[in-house]
Design brief:
Length: 296
């Protein structure tokens, strides 16, 4: 719990939120100075370092040090206000022409700056929002349970199938052209999965096969409740990688493994069929390389 402005607030920052690369561990500690600074900016809107210091009962220098770290992590940003601005403290946004800002818990509003150094006004960036409580997972689980209670297992099957269809459409729009190499498609698939929070990586193995590794499951709570979602992933990957690849899951988080891993094998026979197809340029393989002496 954090006590601010004579009121008690529950700490709203998730301590298990994804860590940005290079982020200081202290800013993840519940009740830490940086967490408290973020909390003030979240609940009170744009602030000066001096005003944050008064709210927290610490020095302005300490607040500036916290803000410098948070700025480096991409969680806060500042703008230098005009020479004669005041700030409306209780609004998430600042009306720079608000000379009659309401008092805060008996405190006087910020003084209007006279001619001199502009006020440095700090605010949260969109990246900071993920550090606060997010109940999307709870909502998803509630929806899945409601579908199961109302429509039974068949309803869950339809849910998983529809999600897979939507994913195939979305992924297809982001994938290389159909005649791109399998290696390109595997790499593109790993990139898409990274963007969705799966911490995916693609590896080319010495024998010419590929390994797709997902170090995190970003839908694990929902997947525990509806494992058809995981089955849909295999269907998704097969549809996206195409008929010239065989894919099998070799490791599975829900089975107790550290990660989900997939073994992808190129189907050489498919390459031969494509080479013989009238619509395929003669003498060119899937990578666009010249073969059998044909012109590229």
């Amino acid at each position: 719990m954090i006590k601010l402005d004579n009121s008690v607030y529950a700490t709203a920052i998730e301590t298990d939120a994804p860590r940005r690369e290079g982020a200081a561990s202290a800013s993840r500690t519940p009740g830490s100075g940086r967490e408290r600074v973020l909390f003030v900016l979240k609940t009170k809107g744009v602030q000066t370092a001096g005003r944050i210091a008064k709210r927290l009962g610490i020095t302005t220098m300490a607040v500036r040090q916290h803000l410098a770290v948070l700025q480096g992590e991409g969680f806060v940003a500042f703008s230098d206000g005009p020479l004669d601005v005041g700030a409306c403290q209780d609004s998430p946004s600042v009306n720079l022409q608000c000379p009659h800002a309401p008092h805060l818990d008996g405190q006087s509003p910020l003084q209007v700056h006279k001619v001199g150094r502009p006020a440095r006004l700090w605010q949260l960036t969109p990246s900071a929002y993920d550090r606060f409580t997010d109940r999307h997972a709870e909502l998803a689980i509630g929806i899945i349970q409601a579908i199961q209670n109302t429509f039974g297992e068949e309803g869950l099957n339809h849910l998983a199938e529809e999600r897979t269809r939507q994913q195939i459409a979305n992924y297809s729009a982001k994938m290389p052209l159909a005649n791109g190499s399998l290696e390109d498609r595997v790499a593109a698939l790993a990139q898409i999965r990274c963007e969705e929070g799966y911490m995916a990586e693609a590896q080319r193995r010495p024998d010419g096969t590929f390994r797709l590794v997902e170090n995190h499951c970003s839908i694990s709570k929902a997947a525990h409740l509806c494992q058809n979602l995981c089955g849909g992933e295999l269907s998704l990957f097969r549809a996206i990688l195409g008929e010239d690849a065989a894919i099998e899951r070799t490791e599975y988080i829900l089975a107790g493994d550290r990660c989900c891993a997939y073994h992808i094998t190129p189907l050489i026979e498919k390459q031969a069929l494509i080479d013989a197809s009238p619509s395929h340029p003669k003498g060119v393989d899937l990578k666009g390389n010249s073969i059998r002496g044909g012109a590229p």
